Amino acid sequence: PALLLPAAAGLVLTPATRTHSSAAAPHARPTIRAVLDVDVSQQRVPVPAAFFEKSDGLLNGKAAYDEMYQRSVDDPSAFWGEVASQFHWEEPWSEVMSYNFAPSKGEVFTSWFKGGKTNVCFNALDRHVAAGHGDQVAFIHEPNEEGETVKSYTYAEVLDEVQRLANVLKEKGVRKGDRVSIFMPMVPQLPIAMLACARIGAVHSVVFGGFSAEALSGRLIDAQSTVVLTADGVMRGVKPINLYDIVQAATKICGEACMEVEALVVLKRLPDSDKTPTLVEGRDVWWSEAIASADPKCDVEWMDAEDPLFVLYTSGSTGKPKGVLHSTGGYMVYAATTSKYVFDLQDGDTFFCTADCGWITGHSYVTYGPMLNRATQVIFEGVPSYPDNGRLWRIVDEHQVTQIYTAPTAIRALMRSGEGPVKASSRKSLKLLGSVGEPINPEAWRWYFEVVGDSRCPIADTWWQTETGGIMIAPLPLEGWAQKPGSASLPFFGVQPVLITPEGKEIEGPGEGLLAIKAPWPSTIRGVVGDYDRYVTTYFPIEGEEYGYYLTGDGCRRDEDGYHWITGRVDDVINTSGHRIGTAEVESAVVLHPDVAEAAVVGFPHPIKGEGIYIYVTLNEGVEQSDELLQALRMQCRGEIGAFASPDVIHWAPALPKTRSGKIMRRILRKIASKDTDADSLGDTSTLADPSVVDTLIATSPLA
Ligand code: WTA
Fold this sequence. Notes:
The protein contains 22 helices and 33 strands. It is of the alpha/beta class. Helix 5 runs antiparallel to helix 6 (155-171), helix 5 (120-133) crosses helix 7 (189-200) and helix 5 runs parallel beside helix 12 (360-372). The radius of gyration is 25 Å and the shape is globular.
C-alpha cells in the first residue's frame, strides 16, 4: 500500500485497552481528552424513556438501524436511490453512484445521481409551499438584544424574498456557475442569500463574519467572486462588527490584486447613526431597496446533480485555506437524511442550531438539512453569554425548542456559571441535545445530559467535517442504542469508517489509528477550488490493495462494541472553540511583523476552548520583548485572520528546537506548551541540533 502522507507520521498507536490519558500514549498529541477526562470507561447510558414519550422514534429500535445500515453498505445505490426518490427531480438520474478514491487508478472523483436534474432551493421551499405549508414558520429570528422586535419568516415569505433576491443577483449579472460571496451576520437573510444563489445555480461562498478584511479578500480572490452579499454591521453581544467596512477594505485589497468587486448588496441591520455607511454609488445597493423593486417571480435553474452547490473555505495543515467544493444532488440528499434521523426531526419540531452559517454546521443544519425537512428553526444572531449565561435556555423556553445543536466549547463555557442559569428555565420542550465541532469530554457530556436535559434527552455527539458535508458518526435516538459519554458511537447509513495505521494497513476490531472512510457517501467532498493536486494529496493519499480511502485528518479509537472515540486532529490543524485553524496560517500572520525572526504555532489543551493557540516567537536580534509587542502580535493575528485566531499564549523563545537539517520539532513544542515536560514525555531529543534549547524553553515558559 502506498502512503504519501507525512502528517500521519506523528501518530503513535496505543493498544485498544488503554484509556485516553497522556501517560498511556506518551507521543500522541495531547488533546482535551487528556486533561479533562475523568472517566472514559465503558459507561452506557440508555436513551431515556422520557424521550419516547415525546417521540415515536423514526425507526423501530437499534435492530432497525442495524438492518438499514447493512443494506446501505451492501448496496449503496439501491439504498440511496430509494432515499433520493423522496425529493423532486426534474429529470431522473441514470446512475446512482460511481467513484474512484485511488489516485493510482486514475482521476479521483465521486459522482451521485448522475444525469439527474434538481434544485436544492426548490426542494427546500417551493415543494413545501406547493404542498400547502406556506404559512408554517421557517425562521424565528432571535436578535442579539433580548426582546428586540424583529420579523420571523414563514416558508412563503422565505420563498418570496429568495426569489426577489435571486432576481437582484441576476440583475447584477450573476449566472449559473458564477461564485457569489456572502459575508453576513447570522440573521434570516443569511440562509435566504444562500438559497437565492442555489435557486439560480450560483455557487455560494459564505465567509464567516468574524474574518478580517485580509482573510476575506483572499477568499474573494480565490473564489473569483465579484458580487458580495453583506450587511452594514451587527452587534454580537456588546461588540459591534462593522461588516461593510471590512468588505470595503477587502475590496481595496482585491483591487490591488487586480480583481474588481463589481457589486455589493447590503442589508441594513444596525439603526441609523453617524456610523451608517455611505454606499459606493453605482456599485452598491441596499438590500431592502433592491428587493422591493425586484420581480417577485424567479424560475429555478434545474441543476445537474453533480453541479457545484457551494464552496466553503477551511484550514488545512499547510498554507492558505482550501475551498471545499460540494455538489447539488448528493449533498441535498445527505444533509436532509442526516437531519431527519440524527435529530429525530419531525413535524411540529422547532430546531435550534447555534452555529453560524459561516461554518459547515450552519450550511448543513440550518440552511439545508432542516429546510429540506420543512422544520421551524431559531436563527440566533447573538452569543450564548449575552446578556448572561442563561440566554440559550430562555430561547429554548420562549420558542419551545425541541432540539438544540451546539458545541462542547459553549457547553464548557456555560458550565462555569453552574446550574443556576440553566435551572432558571424549564426546558421541558427539549427532546434531544446535539453536540458538534470537537470531542465532547465526558464531564461536559454529563452536564449537558443531566443539567441541561434533566436526564430526559438523548445526546447526539456528531462527528463530521466541512469535507464530509454531513454527519458521519453519531448515535441515533433509538431504543436499544446505548450512549457512551464522549463517544460519537456508530456510523450513519452508508458510511464505512476504518482505522488505518500510518503505513496504510486497515486495523480490524478494537484499536486506534487514523480515521479514514472507505467508499463515498452522497456528500463527499468533490474537490478543492482550483487545486486538484491538493485535493488528492490531502484527502486521498492512502491506497489499499483494491481501493483508496478518504483520509479525515483525525485520530480515532474503536472499542469492543465498535464505538468510535475521536481523539482529535493528527495534522497541523488546531481546533479552537470548534474553529479549525491551520498552524501555518497563524505562523505566516506572525512572521509578517518586522520584529519577528521566526514563529512556530501549536495547539495545547485548553479547558474551555478544547485547544488553545500557543505561539513561540523568536525576535530579531536586538529587539526587546515587551507588552506592546505582545499586543502587536495579537493584532497581527486578528488582522490577518480574525479575532478567533488571537493567540492564547505567546512564548518569547530565544531559539526553536530544530533537527540538524533545520526542521522544527513540533512534537517537543506541543509537549512544552502542554507542560508535559518530564524526560519520558519529551522523548528523544538527541537528534536536535542543540538539545539545550529545550531546557531554555522549559525555563522561559510563560505558563511556569
Ligand atoms: C472535529 C465541523 C470529535 C474533528 C462539523 C474534525 C469532532 C473537525 C466532532 C472538523 C465530534 C467535529 N467529536 N471531534 N463530534 N465534530 N470534530 O470542518 O477534528 O469545522 O476533523 O466541521 O472537527 O471541523 P469542521
